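Shipment paperwork, digital attachment
Item: protein structure file
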Amino acid sequence: MESKTSYKEKKVISIGVMSELTGLSVRQIRYYEERKLLFPERSKGGNRKYSFSDVELLMEIANEMEDGVQTFDIRQKRMKKEKEQTRKKMLKGQINAQFGIRK
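Attachment content:
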């Protein structure tokens, strides 16, 4: 059985392990979530679960914060990047549909 979700995207890492991997405190990680920079899933018991991609993202956020970038600016930059990626996917889909390319 083949899973379509990459191992990097599976939300399996607890906040404690995330703290150990990144060197950030649990409070810092929760703060970034509150500022809508990070979006963990929740287990049935309500525990946060993160992915390896979230680890990378959190390190990028921490580095930007160290450089003096405000959380608002980080969020704006991420939103702009996500919109651009969505636009590119839509254009690619339209081109593929126009030329009958299927994946």
